[in-house]
Amino acid sequence: MQQRIALVTGGTGGIGTEICRCLAEQGRQIVAGYLPGDEPAAISWQTARRAEGLRIELAAGDVSSFESSADMVRDVQARIGPIDILVNCAGITQDKTLQKMEKEQWQAVLSTNLDSVFNVTRCVLDDMIGRGFGRIVNISSVNGQKGQFGQTNYSAAKAGVHGFTMALAQETARRGITVNTVSPGYVDTDMTRAMPAEIREAIVASIPLERAARPDEVGHAVAFLCADETSYITGINLPVNGGLYMS
Fold it and tell me: What is the residue extent of each domain of the chain?
């Protein structure tokens, strides 16, 4: 059976790590994307994964730049092979109420969280169409569905991610390519653990399952949508939010 190659942008982050791990357990060849300036940390991350028995390749690219995304994709294709699976996971937050938000904070979040989905997907799409196979999973957020105080930039970007998913799913359905969204709620990562305890406890109290998600629970949702057996699922938004937002 052919081993599919999966590129995970933001693959060295908390959620990205578990996506890489779950896809590797599915038998995929994994390539984790990272920012070019973060090479020492990325190599350290790769070494830690290899100690766990996971052979994961690395690829540098600034996904907010179309040119850098194109260079990253060409590098993966040349060194490892054609990209069968793309997980757009890279993202940042720069939270402020709109009254206090600067244009640079708006643009940075839209560029990294939404423009990046276009940039990387556009660079792999022609090849997927030519081979008649592809799995694209875009990581959105519960806050793209319900909005969040102080996150007009992040909520707008993440809502746009699923709009992109639904439109592209229609364009590629006849080409053997599925396009889906996973929208995590609050996930137990270093970022959420750094919140003040009282804020973290208030968030958890609002979740029907009464806990944050484990990163691997997001990873398993992504792997489900990348499986060969789920080829009839496209254009959906799969929430992984513990019931925080139901629709």
Answer: 5-187+216-233
Q: Per-residue DSSP letters for 40-105? A: HHHHHHHHHHHHTT--EEEEE--TTSHHHHHHHHHHHHHHT----EEEE-------B-GGG--HHH
How many angstroms separate the CA atoms of 204 and 210, rounded?
Answer: 5
Q: Per residue in 121-140, pLDDT tens? A: 999 999 999 999 999 999 99
pLDDT at 1: 55
Residue-wise DSSP of 105-133: HHHHHHIIIIIHHHHHHHHHHHHHHHHT-
Select which of 154, 186, 232, 245 is catalytic. Answer: 154
Res 239 pLDDT > 70:
yes
CB-based contacts of 217, cutoff 8 Å, min separation 6: 240
What are the helix and strand counts (H, E) for the chain? 10, 7
State pLDDT tens for residues 143-187.
999 999 999 999 999 999 999 999 999 999 999 999 999 999 999
The rounded distance, in Å, linking the Cα atoms of 247 and 235 is: 16
Does residue 154 carry a catalytic annotation? yes
Architecture of the CATH domain 5-187+216-233: 3-Layer(aba) Sandwich (3.40)
